[in-house]
Specification:
- With about 130 residues, the protein is mainly alpha-helical.
- It contains 3 helices and 4 strands.
- Strands 1-2 form a two-stranded antiparallel sheet. The protein has a two-stranded antiparallel sheet with strand order 3-4.
- It is extended and about 75 Å long.
- The N and C termini lie far apart (about 65 Å).
C-alpha cells in the first residue's frame, strides 16, 4: 500500500498540480498587492474616498454596515480586472500569435437545402437527401 501511495505521489499529474497550486497562491499575493497598493489608491484619489468601511445605514435601531460589503465588491472587481488585463489578454495574444498561419483546408461543406454539414465528396446530403454538387 505504501508503494502504491509513493507511486501515486510521484506521478506527473500530482506534481504538476502541486506546482500549480503553489504558483497560484504566489500569484494571488501579487494580484492582491497590485489591487491593494496601486489600483485601490488610484480609485481613492479619483473618488476622494479612501475607504468605504465606515458607511452604514440604521433602520429601526439595526445598523447595516454596507461599507465593508462595498469594499469587498470593489476589491473583487479590481482583482478580476487585473487578472483579465494583465494575464488573460496577454496570454490570449501570445496564443493567437502562435496559431497564426494558413488555416486548414475545409473537409466539409453546407447543404444548400438544410444547411447541414456534409463531407466535400458527398453527392447527396446525409440529412435531407438533397442532391448536392
Amino acid at each position: 500500500m505504501l508503494k502504491e501511495f509513493k507511486q501515486f505521489l510521484l506521478r506527473g499529474s500530482v506534481i504538476d498540480l502541486a506546482v500549480g497550486v503553489v504558483i497560484g497562491a504566489a500569484f494571488g499575493t501579487v494580484v492582491a498587492a497590485l489591487v491593494k497598493d496601486i489600483l485601490t489608491p488610484l480609485i481613492s484619489a479619483i473618488a476622494k474616498v479612501p475607504d468605504f468601511a465606515g458607511l452604514s445605514v440604521t433602520v429601526n435601531g439595526s445598523k447595516f454596515m454596507y461599507g465593508d460589503f462595498l469594499n469587498a465588491i470593489i476589491a473583487f472587481v479590481l482583482v478580476a480586472a487585473a487578472i483579465f488585463f494583465f494575464v488573460v489578454k496577454p496570454m490570449n495574444m501570445i496564443v493567437e500569435r502562435s496559431h497564426r498561419g494558413k488555416p486548414a483546408d475545409p473537409t466539409t461543406k453546407r447543404c444548400p437545402e438544410c444547411m447541414g454539414e456534409i463531407p466535400l465528396a458527398a453527392n447527396r446530403c446525409m440529412h435531407c437527401t438533397q442532391v448536392v454538387s
